Amino acid sequence: MNKLRKTICGAGIFVLCLTILHAQEARTPWGDPDLQGRWSNATLTPLQRPAELADKAFFTPEEARDYVNSRLFPDTTEEERIELERAAGNPGSYNDAWMDRGNTIVPTLRTSLISDPDTGRVPPFTAEGQRRFEANMAYAAEHSADTPADRFLTERCIVFGGGAAPVFPEPYNNNYYIVQTPEYVTIMAELNHEVRIIPLDGRPRFPENVEQWVGDSRGHWEGDTLVVETTNQRSNRYFYGVQMLNSVMSDQFRVVERFTRTAPDQIRYEATVHDPVVFTAPWTVEVFMHPQEGHLVEFACHEGNYGMRGILSAAREAERRATEGR
To answer: Side-chain half-sphere of 238: how many Cα atoms within 13 Å?
Structure first.
């Protein structure tokens, strides 16, 4: 029995070593780790640990299977939820046919994408962060559709969460195309076709007063890990994504990302968010990317062309009825 156990353990270690060596051997012609290709970070793992899981950081394999089944086959389908919303006077949202969150959770079986802090949740706001959040929510309640600038950036087809740091899985189009040269790493997100061109040559950053929707990224290699630091990301109360993140970011908002090829079919992605004005502590997410078959598809966003007119005209009609009803 002991001999058999040693044989099995030896075989397991051998396979693990082969996997690590294969990942390390995946290099570009100029010697950098090869991250190129089409990748997907789709996962059913939530960003924050569900409150009912308390301090449970990892699922057992059996618990993971049950959780996946509960997400893939919920008691209430998207179609049923939409009908309930319609009955309440809400036009509703997309049904299941449009969603693609993947079919499993992260390979570590972690119960949240947030790996630090140990709570698996975004740290509390500072007093200033809370003030900003409440002010944004109050403004949105009073000015939900005065002008196009009062709507989410996604509705205006400006930027989606998948193209900016940190990169979070989305409800659909979780695909990325990575291209490398000795001087640059370029990451194209399928969702709204954002492209981040990341210089590796140590050039200076943009001046503090120059902001972009996806920020200003600079990268370098630390061993076999690509480290990317992003600053100068433009804040907006209607930035899509984690509302408590992007809608309240300060000029000290900074994200440090780490891309590591940990296996032939896997990239480990870590991103740490720093903003001492808004959050009481930094926090880190861990996501895994896997090869995506086929090509990235064209993402044509038309909400800004058609949906915006309906949103604003409906708001004006609601105002007219409210005025006439007085």
So the answer is: 19
Q: Which of 265, 271, 297 has the alpha carbon at shortest distance from 177?
A: 297
Residues 6+ apart with CB under 8 A from 104: 43, 44, 68
pLDDT band at 14 (very low <50, low <70, confident <90, very high): very low
What single-letter amino acid sits at 315? Answer: A
Amino acid at 187: I
H, E, C per residue of the chain:
CHHHHHHHHHHHHHHHHHHHHHHHHCECCCCCECCCEEEECCCCCCCCCCHHHCCCCECCHHHHHHHHHHHHCCCCCHHHHHHHHHHCCCCCCCCHHHCCCCCCCCCCCECCCEEECCCCCCCCECHHHHHHHHHHHHHHHHCCCCCHHHCCCCCCCCCCHHHCCCCCCCCCCCEEEEEECCCEEEEEECHHHCEEEEECCCCCCCCCCCCECCCEEEEEEECCEEEEEEECECCCCCCCCCHHHHCCCCCCCEEEEEEEEEECCEEEEEEEEECCCCECCCEEEEEEEEECCCCCCCCCCCHHHHHHHHHHHHHHHHHHHHHHCC
Q: Which of 21, 28, 287 is nearest to 178 (CA)?
A: 28
pLDDT of 184: 98
Instruction: Report whether 191 contacts 214 (CB < 8 A).
Output: no
Task: Tell whether omega for the bond before 276 is within 30 degrees of 0, i.e. cis.
Answer: no
Reported as a single tens digit per residue, the pLDDT across 205-227 is 999 999 998 899 999 999 999 99
Mean pLDDT of the chain: 87
Rg (C-alpha) for the chain, rounded Å, is 22
pTM beyond 0.90 = no
Give dist(CA 175, CA 157) in Å, integer: 18
